[in-house]
Write a structure and sequence with these properties.
This protein is α/β, with parallel strands linked by helices. It starts with a strand and ends with a helix. The longest helix has 15 residues. The chain has a 6-stranded mixed beta sheet with strand order 4-5-13-10-11-12, with helices on both faces. The protein has a 4-stranded parallel beta sheet with strand order 8-7-6-9. The chain has 3 domains: 53 residues, no CATH class; 200 residues, 3-Layer(aba) Sandwich (Rossmann fold), CATH 3.40.50.1100; 72 residues, Rossmann fold, CATH 3.40.50. The chain binds zinc ion. The site of zinc ion has 7 residues, from loops.
Length: 369
């Protein structure tokens, strides 16, 4: 098993403590094995029931907090059948735990003692949680403008927070510099994070009785979750467990939509934008590093992207509260996106709710006062 560069095809062993190729390209990983439906009935109630799909060495011992296996809740909205995947019901409160569990398992297996990561949001919290579970040191780089309230969960897991002056890009650069002496366990760069996210596709397939839905909507910032879903659904089709891919639909806030603009303009990589603030802060990524793979995944599935306004996101957030679903505005953007699809494309869609509103009760109180 090895890493393969998406750009030049260069290969590296998994024991290499690198986060990208020498050419600057991002790395991918593939498993030659897959789980069988028969084996699943006897397995643990976590993402680790699918472990053959991850491409990890067999000896690697899972760093697990019981992540995954989140509910799929069916509802009828405006006469259409839909389902919400409550992926915010995970140990640290977001879907990122799927990726953190698999990536931290690799980190522990190759003997890393300290990781660095740059995210003050859900990814940072997930990596800090799984570093604590693995007994591995964790430093999170964060822009110095990040409100302290956002860092509480990360700090309480025992991670060290380094505040970096300047832009989000400066924070990213600082993490990359720190990678000279610690392992940069990046949710954006390391492909094992995506292998973990792919488990949501396997769960949806299991929860729907061995079928896949016509469409899956997911919020898109860096696009890691959409890419992970594509990996998972493609693997199901390749194994003969599903007939076709669902259309993968990525939702972006108009205020920061480099992927949506790229899709509209037919670009292979992200479009240059001047980002504006958005309530969907979890998907405000100006220069998504894996954009080429994300756009290819959307197009390869026959899917699309959708752009939504601030008002549409807030409306959708409120509508979810009214259904008893306490998701953060970033997550609620999927419902805003679903509402903008042509009516014929709405039926049967699965919408993934990625992060918990419980992380932002103060902010939500202000927004909806
Ligand atoms: Zn390369």
């Amino acid at each position: 098993m090895h890493y393969t560069c998406f750009s030049c095809g260069g290969q590296y062993p998994l024991t290499d403590r690198r986060f990208r190729c020498d050419c600057g390209g991002f790395l991918t990983v593939e498993s030659s094995e897959f789980f069988t439906p028969e084996a699943l009935s006897e397995r643990d109630f976590s993402i680790w029931r699918y472990r053959e799909a991850f491409g990890l060495p067999e000896e690697a011992e899972p760093v697990s907090l019981g992540e995954g296996r989140t509910p799929l809740v069916r509802r009828e909205i405006a006469g259409q059948d839909v389902a919400f995947k409550l992926d915010y019901l995970q140990p640290s409160g977001s879907f990122k735990d799927r990726g953190a569990s698999v990536l931290m398992t690799l980190v522990k297996f190759i003997g890393v003692e300290r990781i660095v990561e740059d995210s003050s949001g859900n990814a940072g919290a997930a990596m800090a949680a799984y570093a604590a579970a693995a007994g591995i040191g964790c430093t999170i780089f964060s822009p110095d403008y990040t409100p302290d309230g956002k860092l509480v969960q990360i700090r309480l897991y025992g991670a060290q927070v380094e505040k970096v002056p300047g832009t989000r890009q400066d924070t990213n650069d600082a993490a990359i510099r720190a990678a000279a002496t610690a392992f940069y366990a990046s949710h954006l760069w390391n492909p094992f994070f995506g292998q973990g996210l792919a488990t949501a596709a396997y769960e949806i397939w299991e929860q729907m009785g061995g079928r896949v839905p016509p469409a899956v909507l997911v919020p898109v910032g860096s696009g890691g979750y959409l890419e992970g879903l594509a990996i998972g659904f493609r693997a199901l089709v390749r194994a003969g467990y599903a007939a076709a891919l669902p259309r993968l639909i990525g939702v972006q806030a108009h205020n920061c939509a480099p992927l949506h603009l790229a899709w509209e303009r037919g670009l292979a990589d992200y479009a240059a934008i001047e980002p504006q603030p958005t309530v969907a802060e979890g998907i405000a990524v100006q220069r998504p590093p894996r954009a080429a793979a994300v756009l290819a995944a959307v197009r390869g599935s026959g899917g699309r992207t959708v752009g939504v306004s601030e008002e549409e996101i807030l409306d959708a957030t409120k509508a979810l509260f009214g259904l008893g679903l306490f998701a953060e505005p970033t997550s609620a953007s999927v419902l805003a996106g679903w509402r903008k699809l042509p009516p014929a494309e709405r039926d049967g869609a699965v919408m993934i709710l990625t992060g918990s509103g419980l992380k932002q009760t103060k902010r939500l109180g202000e927004l909806f006062a």
